[in-house]
Amino acid sequence: MRIGITCHPSAGGSGIIATDLGIALAERGHTVHFVTSEPPFRLTQFHRNVHSHIVSQISYPLLRQSPGGLTLAAKIADVVDEYGIDVWHAHYAIPNAASAIIARSMLPDDKRFKVVTTLHGTDITLVGTDPSFYRVTRYAMEQSDAVTAVSNWLRDATEREFNLSRPVRTIYNFVDLQKYRGVPSNRCDLATPDEKVIMHISNFRPVKRVTDVVRAFKRVLDRVPASLVMIGDGPEKISADGVARQLGITDKIKYLGIIENIESVLPCADLIFQPSEHESFGLVPLEAMACGVPVIGTASGGITEVVQHGVTGYLCEVGDIETMAKYAVQLLTNPQQAHDMGQEGRKRATNLFSKEQRVKEYEDLYAELLEK
Q1: What is the model's pTM?
Q2: What's the pLDDT band for 188 if we cut at 50, 70, 90?
Q3: Containing domain of residue 77, as a range?
Q4: CA angle 334, 284, 357 (to 5 degrees)
Q5: Same structural domain for residues 157 and 292?
Q6: How many distinct structural domains can be found in the chain?
Q7: Nearest CA-CA partner of 92 in 48, 125, 46, 56
Q8: Alpha-carbon gap, residue 71 to 58, rounded angstroms
Q9: What is the domain-level CATH number for residue 116?
Q10: Are residues 141 and 161 in the same domain?
Q11: Which DSSP symbol is given to 50?
Q12: Which pLDDT tens digit goes with each residue over 297-315?
């Protein structure tokens, strides 16, 4: 098949999954064309059957903001016209699915393609439900040939909020079990020999509650020698640093910024803190589980479908830093329990979230649409 993909090119979960999906489809013999505003975060080297097209940005005095959705639609139409695309897979309804639908409407009938829209979370929970975008978000989903969501929680929220004429299909996110396999690199000098490593990975947006990470870590530090490793970047980094300064623990926190090959660092952690207000899926917890690292997260949103409470980690109420710290101390002082939870996490990732399973689901969905 000839498949087009649009996604956010940043280091967020949706862009990572979209890029990994495209690479995996190319490895299975399909031709994949990415159309994005800049090279995708994970598309850093040559892959056979993968092509990347960058959307031009317009700068014109009358346009105070670049009409990104329209330039994206024009680029999609250009790529389809030149290469002939069977299925266009838009990750995020706004603007990606809407742009794909506009592009399709500009083409003659013999070049029209199927549109698959995958919802990742904030396109529904934040952007889509805003009155300014509600109508166009619903239209984009209704005009798509298929709509998928990355968790049952997100599927149910979408159907409840938008009352679509046909059901949303759940296709979970996935992890490459060959890449994420619990083998740390030789760069894991993140703590002294007597310290445990607690890790947090995110885009540091308010929904990730990074100050909760710092406050819970302080409570752990009162009981267990440890180092907190923060990976990623974003607007809440300043707040996290401010809280750490107030608590007098800045020397115990390392900020590593955005790391492309996160699989080389994740296995260095003794546990992962992910106290988000909600997650539509929880890709970082899944990657941690694949590496055999237990997760402490919040019992909110789709993460409850990823982390099995008491088996692969622990889930707490949003903002309950006391319980988070209690579970962390319990795991850090009981290496056998932490090891057993890590092994259960690896099993769960293998059984439910392997790359091969999920890529085959998307492949089957494309074929189903083309048969129609």
Answers
A1: 0.91
A2: low
A3: 2-174+354-371
A4: 110
A5: no
A6: 2
A7: 125
A8: 8
A9: 3.40.50.2000
A10: yes
A11: E
A12: 999 999 999 999 999 999 9
